[in-house]
Specification:
By secondary structure, this protein is an alpha/beta fold. Helices cover 42% and strands 18% of the residues. The strands form three sheets. The protein has a nine-stranded mixed sheet with strand order 1-2-3-5-4-6-7-13-14, with helices on both faces. It has a three-stranded antiparallel sheet with strand order 8-9-10. It has a two-stranded antiparallel sheet with strand order 11-12. Helix 4 (149-163) packs across helix 5 and helix 9 runs antiparallel to helix 10. The longest helix has 26 residues, at 2-27. The termini are far apart.
Length: 404
């Protein structure tokens, strides 16, 4: 009944949000001066109420152009391969130049792939960029079957096959484990689409290193607790009715609870900016939370297997990870260059968890391995923002360029 209770509460609040939007529109033509202090404060209060909402639809990537060389080139987003639980998207640019092809593997952890909008925008400067656009499990009918960790690895390999030989892979956060597994399997099979480079950014290759609150929570409870407390059925109003899922709204609450004071302060600043008519400053905060409050559900099997196999048993680090029953052996990776990136202030994936990949890929020659530690950035700063653009991205670009 967990999902039904959430949906019932959201349905009750929806009329209040709608009323707030109407009153906000009315305030623009009210008898008081809408541009005055009272009008701005009223409008700000109504907008804050109208924004009290979690959405379950993927926002638009809103990437229409990219800086390529010394000009802004138009960008169009196209679907390359559409599968039930995920779509391979390509950001096609208006350029005739041959550019390295990069598959960005987005996390499947409660948010949509659009969370990596800034990552993609920066990569487009020098690369032909593809991304894994994961589906919201509540919108996938039961007839599509299950989607677990092995299926996730399969999807990565299918996407690399579709892109073709000579591509590169860049995984952010949670899918670093699956990306490394996919490359190991493809390397062992001598698959022609095995990527030339593998960039792993802030991912739990070995979560036993410097455990964070996220890691500690995953190992502090039994699998039965996660199944009984966090897994629920999709309501009948949705295409995935009856599917057992870990709801995205629960993941959002978990993330927010880790830094609740920061989110409260951000919304206080948002109100102040709105009340003062500081639209540019307010816009930055609204843009972030529009993305942050857009959530997707995970299938029960993927979530539970991730808790057990990635965090509780650390199967990749211990050498026990399997793919459809066959052991995954990172030593098979001999020709795919490895770059790992960690943030010095990452409170989700701490120092040492991602760089552990170097010990696992011990067959790689020294010139094919590199680690980059970015000081003074948290988890999101590893793949978005000023430090990503100015300091981390050049390292990623140079690694890819060196293997072209």
């Amino acid at each position: 009944m967990l999902y039904q209770a959430y949906q019932f509460q959201d349905d009750l609040i929806a009329p209040l949000r709608d009323l707030a939007r109407r009153l906000q529109m009315f305030s623009a033509t009210a008898f008081w001066n809408p541009g005055g202090e009272m009008g701005r404060q009223f409008s700000a209060a109504m907008e804050m109420i109208s924004r009290f909402e979690i959405t379950h639809e993927r926002p638009d990537f809103a990437i229409t152009s990219a800086l390529i060389g010394n000009r802004m080139a138009p960008v169009t987003v196209e679907s390359v391969l559409d599968l039930p639980f995920g779509t391979l998207l390509r950001f096609a640019t208006d350029t005739d130049a041959k550019r390295p092809r990069v598959l960005v593997v987005a996390p499947l952890s409660g948010h949509f792939a659009t969370l990596l909008r800034g990552t993609v925008q920066t990569l487009l400067r020098d690369h032909d960029v593809y991304i894994t656009d994961w589906a919201n499990a509540r919108d996938v009918p039961l007839s599509a079957g299950r989607f677990g960790m092995d299926d996730y690895v399969d999807y990565i390999m299918h996407f690399l096959e579709e892109i073709g030989p000579g591509a590169h892979i860049l995984a952010v956060c949670q899918p670093c484990v699956q990306a490394l597994a996919a490359v190991a399997v493809m390397s062992e099979e001598r698959h022609p689409a095995t990527p030339r480079t593998m960039t792993l950014m802030a991912g739990p290759i070995d979560p036993r290193e410097s455990p964070t609150k996220v890691n500690e929570l995953a190992v502090s409870k039994s699998l039965a607790w996660f199944e009984n407390s966090l897994i629920t059925g999709v309501p009948w109003r949705y295409r995935g009715a009856g599917r057992r899922v870990y709801p995205g709204f629960l993941q959002l609450v978990a993330f927010m609870s880790m830094n609740m004071q920061r989110h409260q302060d951000a919304h206080r600043r948002l109100y102040d900016h709105l009340a003062k008519g500081e639209t540019a400053e307010a816009g930055k905060i609204k843009t972030f939370y529009d993305e942050y409050f857009a959530v997707l559900d995970l299938t029960e099997e993927f979530y539970i297997e991730t808790i057990e196999r990635v965090f509780q048993k650390a199967e990749l680090a211990t050498g026990d990870l399997t793919h459809h029953g066959r052991r995954v052996d990172p030593v098979q990776i001999r020709n795919t260059a490895l770059l790992t990136v960690e943030g010095g202030r990452d409170d989700i994936c701490a120092l040492g968890q991602t760089s552990a990949a170097h010990d696992l890929c011990r067959a790689l020659r020294p010139h094919l391995k590199r680690h980059h530690l970015q000081a003074n950035v948290g988890h999101y700063g590893v793949f978005s923002g000023r430090r990503w653009e100015g300091e981390i991205y050049p390292v990623v670009r140079n690694m890819i360029l060196a293997m072209e």
